[in-house]
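Exercise: predict the fold of this chain.
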Amino acid sequence: MVNLSGVVLPSPLRQRQQGQRTTPPSVRIVHSGHACNVEEERHAERVYTIREGETLELSCLVTGHPRPQIRWTKTAGSVSDRFQDSSVFNETLHIAKILRTQGGRYYCKAENGLGSPAIKSIRVDVYYLDDPVVTVHQSIGEAKEQFYYERTVFLRCVANSNPPVRYSWHRGREVLTQGSDKGVEIYEPFFTQQGETKILKLKNLRPQDYANYSCVASVRNVCGIPDRSVIFRLTNKTASPSIKLLVEDPIVVNPGQTVSLVCITTGGEPPPLLAWISSNDSLPQRSVVKGGTLTLPAITSDEAGVYSCVASNNVGNPAKKSTTIVVRALKKGRFWITPDPYHNDDNIQIGREVKISCQVEATPPEELTFSWLKNGRALRSSERMVITQTDPDISPGTTNLDIIDLKFTDFGTYTCVAALKGGGIPEISIDVNISSTTVPPLFFSFLVPPNLTVPRGKSPLVAREGDTVELECLVSGKPKPIILWSRADKEAPMPDGGMQMESYDGVLRIVNVSREMTGSYRCQTSQYNGFNVKPREAVVELIVQYPPTVEPVHMETRQGLGRPVVMTCRVLRAHPSRVLRFEWLLSNRLLHAGAFDAQRDETEYTIRSLNRDGWGEYTCNVINEAGAGKCTFQVTGKAYPAEFYYDTYSPLWQNRPRVYGFKLQWTQMNPNAVDRIVAYRLGIRQMGLQRWWEQEIPVVGAFSKGELMTHNLTELIKPESYEVRLTPITRFGEGDSTIRIVTYTAPVNPHLREFHCSFEEETICMFTQDKNDDFDWTRHSASTRDTKYTPNTGPSGDRTDSKQGFYMYIETSRPRKDGDQARLISPFFNVAPKNPYGINNPPAYCFGFFYHMYGKHIGTLNAHLKQKGQTASEAPVWSLNGNQNDRWKQAKVSIRPTASFQVVLEGIRGPGIEGDIAIDDVTLEEGECRDPPPNLSAKAPSMSSHIWLLCITVVMTLLEGQR
């Protein structure tokens, strides 16, 4: 033994157990945290009740090999949307300060690639109770003065809760109930949008009805939630609120001004509370509310909207007054020129009509004014120069200047000036220049319709992925119009995310162009800042070249020495699609190069026999004109990790006061993929410490996939936990490591005061199946009867006659045969001697259980005492055989062990299939058995007791035969 600071790792010990140990996952959910109540299997579901604000903890216990992956989800979506992502993939789901909105059904899903995933669920019910609210309402319209004088009044109480709330009404110290006062009626609760509501009706108010009323809401103290109450004082002055706004509506201001809205109460008892709300969902961040005054400093256009003052005092309906704030603004000045609409001609000619249009966006629109200038002088509307601002056929915020019978004297600069009547906002001026140095006959050269062309050599435009490209359309015309770019080949957004992009010089600039941008682009003239004529357009083709896309991008290949390795690099897509060549390299050393076959889209490299020099990173570069795509292969002899086996029965044992041992088991993932594993490096360290202790576990001979390996860890200090690391070793060196935590858990029954097992959990109270018998006991619920084969055997429920309860039984159908044995072994129980030097007078324990032995082929049920160190099998301490009728019976027997011990329940098959034997509710208590069942005899093994049991058995067998 090597002493490792309290941890003794013994000389290499390895046990092999044949057979595939891979098992599909199973899962169950257990709860911890602050649960109020857990109802198991109610209507086939588990309900976990918790108080709002407490901590929810649900643990997902899984079995299966390899270790299953766990994921938590929630009804109507992933739980990752509702709490920390780190919780979603852990065995324990942790939600601190749970909210009512986080209630619902939670699912734990476990999968390890074998069979279907295992899924269990539990419904989380979050309990809460909010403070109740009392509102007062009147049956008729408002009176002019005393609001509730000689009127019927309704007091409504509502509180949000889960579970449903119960209400009670009090007037002063008097509890009000239906029928206790003729002037009072109490309605049954009904549901509204606010929740469950309780109504108290006061008919034709009397003097004694003016009092303090309290509504008490209760959820009967579930989850420790206390009752909540609210008091309302009803007087002859009680009235609903009324308010007044000391501002105009609307309020028109300039940006940057400070706006104050003042709201005052003009009535209401109790005194109303004032609040401000906005049509923009929330008040501006810089706003200040003080009493009934809302101040908006340095207001902006974004803060314009409707602002409302709301007053409430829980009497009648809240009072609400609103005003609209309008912030002056002028923006987006544009112009366009329309040739003579009466002639189908895009040219503007002498003697014909021409219209100049000017448009802006104004707030408020009714304050918008336009004026026209020619060469800086005011222009008035005349017979030849017609100015319109209210034309119903034009867009809002637009003015037109119609020049009728265009003449040479109309040359000049025309200016459209937009302004707001209230002032304070800068004007917007738009200039349209009409001038020319040469005047050909019949038309103007200074006003030229637009034209679009694509420069020679600019379409198709070829670029490489990642470049910056410029698509160009040459635009001509006077004045030069804005160019709109869009996709011509498909309905797709432009690089900025919109469907169109504006350009003032006809150039579309795209930075970091990608392969998805290959296609046709349309350039088109807009009517703005140019001629209002049929749009001109042209198309530019863009071709984006990119290096080959290949697979696999990265692959790890594990292989043993002397074996072949084949690596394949495949081309998925490329532009240009013609691939020029390929090259294979090992650590930058060229191995092979060549040209691609036109008929193939892949290249291979083969290592006929792998040697030590062949380990490393292989790269395949596939090259075209745009660059290279790269496949990477990591060829290694590294062994795959071991996979710890978590489903070991009773892995933890203890036979000394301060230390414990642990049976570590694992299988090897793909052991034949690489060279033979010659050893495992075992590392262990105590949790919280830095130092690792290591040793090698030699491996003798080869082993197969799924073969179970075992190594015993001893001298682990109670109650510390340990981190265990296991690394396989081959000729290549160390493989991948895997780590698990070994945790100390107290024994099921450390002092043997009382042990009880009803087999409700899958762990079956740490009972284990004997590996040396003929078959196993089976855990089951409801009836074991099979109407087709065995209609007259087995119980119809557990010991309590529950269809949902579990029990253990032996299935005696084929292929079982007469005399086959199944043994179920309990965990070890320690005997604490009163005399530390030995046990002269061993203590007594009462071992009990319920059994069901129904069927004409019932065999034998035995109970054995197995003490530590015992080698020879002793006679049973209790035994019974034959049909005992269709009912559960109890057996008790006193035992006196002298060392740590186990109890063994042995079922032996009878001569036929109608011989199922079941057991349930196994107990072990200190002291002699009291009042043993009258129909049984069971003592510690003595010759006379066995002879007596044999006689009883013979007689019962003869009687059964006579039936």
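Check your answer against the key: DSSP finds two helices and 73 strands in the chain.
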